[in-house]
Amino acid sequence: MKQALRALFSPLLNALESGESAYTYKPSHRKILIFISLVFTALALLVMAMNPGDDMGYYFPVLVFGLLGLLGLVVGTLGNDRAVAAIWGNR
């Protein structure tokens, strides 16, 4: 199942996993990335639930928080150590 999901998200993962430069990675980085991604996803769901009706302006935060949450969850669960370090920024 993991390999099928990696194949589905390969354009994103390949961009973050490429490179030969040194990177700094700690296991806590992955845990924090997944936690923050879950918070963004919860925010997106909360804003979507608070939608008062026909106002389309509420969907912009849902889109932004939802995409950020999805990106973090994909990289945190499917990406390798280099991809997680790329999200945090190489130092």
Strands, total number: 0
Estimate the mean pLDDT confidence: 88
Structural class: mainly alpha
- Residue windows where pLDDT falls under 50 for at least 5 positions: none
Q: How many helix segments? A: 5
Task: Describe the protein.
- The chain is mainly α.
- It has a domain at 36-91.
- It is built from 5 helices and no strands.
- Helix 2 (10-17) packs across helix 5 (81-88).
- The N and C termini lie far apart (33 Å).
SSE layout and pairing:
Layout: H1 2-8, H2 10-17, H3 27-49, H4 59-78, H5 81-88
Helix pairs in contact: 2-5, 3-4
Short synopsis of the structure:
The chain is mostly helical and 91 residues long. The protein has helices at 2-8, 10-17, 27-49, 59-78, 81-88. It has a domain at 36-91.
Structural descriptors:
single chain; mainly alpha; 91 residues; 0% strand; 5 helices
